[in-house]
Every structure is written in C-alpha cells, then in structure tokens.
Amino acid sequence: MPILGHVFVYMVIWWVVLFVVLPWRVQRQENPKSGHDAGAPVNPHLKAKLITTSLIAFGIWGIAFFIVHHYDLSLAIFERSRP
Questions:
Q1: Exposed e or buried b for every residue in 40-63, given b needs 16+ CB within 10 A?
Q2: What's the whole-number mean pLDDT along residues 39-54?
Q3: Which of 17, 36, 65, 76 is least crowded, fewest Cβ atoms below 10 Å from its Cβ?
Q4: Using an 8 Å Cβ cutoff, are 12 and 40 in contact?
Q5: Secondary element (H or E) of residue 59
Q6: Contacts for 50 with CB less than 8 Å, ≥ 6 apart
C-alpha cells in the first residue's frame, strides 16, 4: 500500500477514535450563566483528548499495519475472478 494509503487509513481511524474519546471526563456546569448552554462542559480537556486520540489511533493503525503486511492482505483478494 502506498504511503498516501497509510496516511488515509490513519486519518479515518483517528476520527473514529476522536468521537469515542470526546465524551470522556465531561462535566456539565451546575449553574450556567444566562445565555450559556446548560450542556456545555466546564473544561473540555481538548488538548489531552487530542493527544490520547493520536496515541490510541497510532496503536490501532500499527496493529492494522502489522496484520496487513504480515499476512500480505489487500483488497484484490475480494475481486471476482473473471473468465
């Protein structure tokens, strides 16, 4: 798989993991000020969540990379053989 394919796969994994990590450690404001959203978190911890997302995504991508290259997998195995 070319390098661009690996980057694309990592980006897709990263976004999926981000949506899993975003709800972690979210605490709502007890008494929000007038005009503020009641569901907005007090401190979203975005920097920590981005770092955590990157590390988890890299681990998942590394496992996928190993499996694909170790077993020599590709999408070509799913193609039908033509007569």
A1: eeeeebeeebeeebeebbeebbee
A2: 94
A3: 76
A4: no
A5: helix 46-70
A6: 18
